[in-house]
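Input.
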Amino acid sequence: MRRQTAASGGRWRGGDGSVAAAWWVGVVVLGGHLLSCAQAGLLESNPGLAYNFYQKSCPSVDSIVRSVTWAQVAANPALPARLLRLHFHDCFVKGCDASILLDNAQSEKTAAPNLSVGGYEVIDAIKAQLEKACPGVVSCADILALAARDAVSYQFRSSLWQVETGRRDGTVSLASNTGTLPSPFAGFAGLLSSFANRGLNLTDLVALSGAHTIGVASCSSVTPRLYQGNATAVDPLLDSAYAKTLMSSCPNPSPAAATVGLDGGSPFKFDSGYYARVQQNQGTLASDAALAQNAAAAQMVADLTNPIKFYAAFSMSMKKMGRVEVLTGTNGQIRKQCRQVNTS
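Output.
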């Protein structure tokens, strides 16, 4: 999803090569402490998921998903953002049931908000390996959740958050259901409502918006902030200098396939710099700028400029999002192929 900014071995390096490594250890330790403190609240509302759900039925699931995902990310640094978005777009429509992967007519992936979503080939590759190791055991929905985590974690060479598993796959995928996806043009109230409809709160909105620290946006999602008709009309919530940078990537009119980095500072590095840019009116999307227009959200933005707080908050909200309307137990199915429902 970005240029590779981690040094060899996956560690961030300071001038002497040692400070950043020690800093990351500190993040892991403190982040783990923060997560453990809040974990009990999560588990009280557990919808049937579990850590190490496949411990007996497919003990190699974690290593297989990580191995395939990391190999693919090493070859294509755009994948962390794509897989993270794929998981997000799945969970916000009928819950985390892998319905976005289905190829039937008028499926979710044919809807306008999903036409730029990618990473399907990685899920296919992982599923193929898992079907060899543990036929009919691991759901596509769980693969999505694990692959998103592992893709983002590649730069650290260590898992950034734990993933609960035990999801089963849905059998319905309709483009008409994608209206629940948050819009890149949404104001604060609209965003908060979209998240609330999925059982997510203000903290989750601000933390998960941090996913925009990586990846790209289509110019069509940005140009309404830059132009009005044939004339320049810059959104007053957008820093004027950054607006010029966006215009250079997204002229008027822009080619249909044109894109611009979501994070103008470090668009290929998963970090907390996104929040500093939101504070500086340099959020790429209108939905980014919206976070600074509410006092409570703006305070959270300020807090999450601290990388330790960001990683902890993002981890908690990812786990919470991963529970949205999941199918467990005997509901749904375990698809043999992620792009189609089982026929028998």
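Strands lie at 216-218, 227-228, 231-232, 259-261.
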